[in-house]
Amino acid sequence: MKKMLFVFGFTFALLAANQLCALEVQPQQQLEQSQQLAGVQKIDLNRASSDELALIPGIGQQKAIAIQQHVAEHGPIRSEQELQEVRGIGPRLAATVAQYVRFED
């Protein structure tokens, strides 16, 4: 019985460790996608999907949706300064986002 409990506990520990490793890979993949996005071309902030916006460092799914809602309600965002009008985006985050996007002229 003790041996069976040991095997069960050991198996559970291995599965848990495997899941933790998998969780660490996902943010790394997102970072690589963000770096590719910045290196290749900037995305159009006003036309990007929420999934595309969520790849930008500091922008998760909720802020991506907030950006889209702001554009829908107020029109295109034309500058880093206007981006700060989106709820949850301050000067520092706007500066980071500006490295990955282009604003409508």
TrEMBL record:
Residues 1-22 form the signal peptide. Residues 51-70, 81-100 form the Helix-hairpin-helix DNA-binding motif class domain. Pfam families: HHH_3. Keywords: Signal. It comes from the Bacteria. This is Helix-hairpin-helix domain-containing protein. It comes from Alkalimonas delamerensis.
